[in-house]
Amino acid sequence: MSAVRRTWVISALLAALSGILAAATTLAVAQLVAVVVSPQAAPLIAVGGAFIDATPPALKDFAIATFGTNDKLALLISMTVVIAVVAAVAGVLARRRWVLGAGIVLVLAAVGAAAAATRPSASPFAVVPSIVGGAVGLVALRILLSRLPGRRAPQPSDRDSSDHGLGRRSFLAAALLAAAVAAAAGVGAQLLASATQTVEAARRVLRLPAPFRKAAALPAGVESGVSGSEPFVTPNDGFYRIDTALAIPQVDADSWRLRVHGLVEEEVEISFQDLLDADLVESWVTLTCVSNVVGGDLAGNAKWLGLPIRDLLARARPTADADMVLSTSIDGFTASTPLAALMDDRDALLAIGMNDEPLPAVHGYPVRMVVPGLYGFVSATKWVVDLEVTRYADARAYWTDRGWSEKGPIKTASRIEVPGPFARVPAGQVAIGGTAWAQQRGITAVEVQVDDGDWAPATLAMEASVDTWRQWSFFWDATPGTHQLTVRATDATGEVQTAERLDTVPDGATGQHSISLTVE
Ligand SMILES: Nc1nc2c(c(=O)[nH]1)N[C@H]1C(S)=C(S)[C@@H](COP(=O)(O)O)O[C@H]1N2
Ligand SMILES: [Mo]
């Protein structure tokens, strides 16, 4: 490579680096400003959130299937990579034509500002983080590019060649400074965010009131005893999490209000204190996600504490033509729940407690809905702030707009948890264990099939309620070779879990769970 060409390449690479450093400064400064304005107003979070809401269902399905519950991390990483590439291009362009590079930075900042301004519950200040970040980024880019070595052709008047070296050192100093600013702003944002985490602090000191009606004690023998099975009660930190929130909404319980309105005789508004003072009930309910594949783990069982939603609706008095309640989260997510499911005698709750603790932030602190028998996407609104009594003919929920069903009764399901898929087990008696669920109906039988043999009854563990899952066990006299085990459940209506394989879209997967294993 000729010396001229080499200088050009180095200079272009450093210009690209300048772009990336300027972008890092922009994002970090914006993040810092967003701590003060609103975490949801940080450009990365706002654009990511807008992207999630705009993603076609098929892509979202793919993301959930591919990344599991890491889909949000994957999205953030992809966005960072895209921004880095665009920023590098902006740096290279700006080296020759400042307006081009500056234009790209401005467009990026404008996209961030626009996304932040249009997020649900955005304040007028939501644009500020992107604007301040963009301005700082432009300054950083300008300074860095003005110090690029080799920008200026050597002049005869230069006293010696060390001028070139000086340029490099001066660029290095600017680059280090930009990196330091970005790092300081990023770390500062983190520190400030945790120092102002009043929500987590408030949650920690919150004492839940004693329930007016306690949950029934769990019967002895509610667990099958097969070691390695999922615990009957899912610990809060092991509970699956599914939502569209890139940054977890920070909801202040003291200013939290829930409005019940729409087709009602009387609008009702309650505060968090009203909930604490109300007659709360405890209930064991197994929550299930419609995106759960056959044999999947998007289900969890907890003891919820909350106000029966029917008590609230009784005060509001829905009119005769209403058939649905559209619940809305502070982050704009909505769910359409049949009014009947919220009025009948099941424990549909406005929950504030989960396994004897205030709701964890990721599970909806301070208040969420829990409705036995319905998939989460049509019922389990976290960070809920609004209940509109309406009609299916008049309003549509978040996922219904994206190709999913407007209603979502949970389908009968069963899975094998032990042994794991492709396990190798010794011949002789092998303990098979798992869980089955058919919320609102209850499980009355589970059967296991070895290879193409006859279905044989499994032993059911005790039932806690028709709204919880039920464990089962099966002792198999295993003979050497490769085998396939399949499970199916029967619910209390007598319906046997179908073998017909249906996809999760639009209203939940069907099919029977099988595993292959080797007996040695
Ligand atoms: N605000 C909000 N609530 C939500 C969702 C959401 O995306 N946003 N997802 C729903 C879905 S699809 C499910 S399965 C449950 C999951 O609740 P969990 O995360 O506490 O397990 O929350 C429901 N509530
Ligand atoms: Mo879900």
Automatic annotation (TrEMBL):
List the keywords (alphabetical): Membrane, Signal, Transmembrane, Transmembrane helix
Q: Which residue ranges traverse the bilayer?
A: 73-93, 98-118, 124-145, 171-193
Q: Which residues form the signal peptide?
A: 1-23
Task: Report any one BP term from Gene Ontology.
Answer: sulfur compound metabolic process
Please provide, alphabetically and separated by semicolons, the GO molecular function terms listed in this UniProt record: heme binding; molybdopterin cofactor binding; sulfite oxidase activity
Q: Does the keyword Amino-acid biosynthesis apply?
A: no
Q: Which named protein is this?
A: Molybdopterin-dependent oxidoreductase
